[in-house]
Amino acid sequence: MGYRWQNSFRHFRGDVEQTERLEERTEVENRLHLFDFSLSYQVTPRWSLTVAAPFMTVDRISHRNETVTGSTGIGDMSIGAKFWVFRPPTESRQNIQVGFSMKLPTGDPNVTNQVGPNTVAVDQSIQLGDSGTGVSVDFMTFKSMQRFTLFANGAYLFNPKNTHLPSGTNIVAPNPPGIGYRGYSGPGTVYSVSDQYLAQAGLGYAVPKITGLAFTATGRVEGVPARDIIGREDGFRRPGYAVSVGPGVMYSRGRNTWSVSAPIAVRRDRTENVNDAARGSHGDAAFADYLLLVGFSTTF
Questions:
Q1: 281 — alpha (psi -120 to 50), left (phi > 0) or beta?
Q2: pLDDT tens digits for range 56-69
Q3: CATH number of the domain bearing residue 107
Q4: Structural domain of 228
Q5: 3-class SS at 127?
């Protein structure tokens, strides 16, 4: 099980923070609790099968008018396989794992809330799913040297589907071509089904005389590209990325492993989307100051 907490409230246009949003109390804030449950079956020493199901609850607060919307439920599940390039355990204390999975559209992409007299689709950033079937590729590698371990991992989600118009609202007509160019995401907005990526690397240190305890230092980058590798990118999206660095701790005892880390943002950039580039505009997006990541795993 993995848990992620983040509070996104600092607005950026490009890599420049829009500090006036906080000063004027016009910021939009997302408070996210994300749980990721996964189960793996070791078929052979090199091959394993994995199924994962995220569950999230998130509130979106518009401080300009003190409007609160939210969503709670299962997100998009995935099922896939992973394999070690070298048969473990390796004498050189290093290995590479490669994985691939199918992302299934199990999360509701049409979450609605009652806002005044209207039933409206919640913002794209807090929808439970994106309506697309995607393919993800990932890797993990490590190299152990006495008490130190170098490690890296990453994943890229290919989302070929182009757009999605949330249904179930009392405003269903999509915006004209080039929707979302003002940075607006709300009723009647056609959403872009976007690719996503994550990469991180770091160093772990096994503490002497305390078996199973290790400290880590990790750098990570995660985000949404402006253009997909496969498919088009019509519709509204908020592309951008965040770079974070931070400490962590891991503890293993028997079949159980616990981990906690708190990456702190050092760079945030809301890049131009396709419509921004075409119209000479540049929307913004809210980012968090830090993440809280907690993990637990057990084998049986």
A1: beta
A2: 999 999 999 899 99
A3: 2.40.128.130
A4: 2-298
A5: coil
